[in-house]
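Q: What structure does this chain adopt?
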Amino acid sequence: MPTQHRHSVSADQLDAWLPQTQCTQCGYPRCRAYAEAMAQGEAGINQCPPGGEVTIAALAGLLNVPPQPLNPRFGIHKPRMRAVIDESICIGCRKCIDVCPVDAILGSRKLMHTVLARECNGCALCLPPCPVDCIALQAVDEQPGSGPWPEYARAESDRWRTRTEKRLDRLARRKSLRPEKSPGTQRSATETAAPRSAQEMMREEIRAAVERAKEKKARQSGSSS
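A:
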């Protein structure tokens, strides 16, 4: 039997077969990083639960390697979900906005947040940081239309890739505009204390908002019983 030789494939070709949910389940911070690791032979083809068998088969064909079952270490393939925010509980802390990889959540500090249903990819990264558990995942019933995956249309995955790249570019520009502090620069006691004071005030605001949300939820539960 002839020996199979692994093909040399670009990260772009591999990335095209990832659904771009940016969920980090594969062990990498985003889909592109996983594609680059596969291109360098540092990651397996069976680490993408959202892509499931479709992605594994495509990656195996590109790399000329045998298909493998999805590695349960990285999760299992699940039906597509979408994040929904309970706006009556949301305290406007922005924590979900800060972690959304595709900018699918709108809102301002201390104001209600909402999810853009068309842009949400169901990555679930917004759930852990929410201090009041006001975000839930709901099943997506509608069919995505034409595309390689049962749950995701090619146009959607391409759009999520673009939105992720734009977000990363925006964050990089914002970071580059921050004034750099000289290592030898001495700061006054007031300057040193100010950031800590602001952070503490923010934590106090979040704690107070969480308590108000709990009290409101308790009142609603009491009135319904």
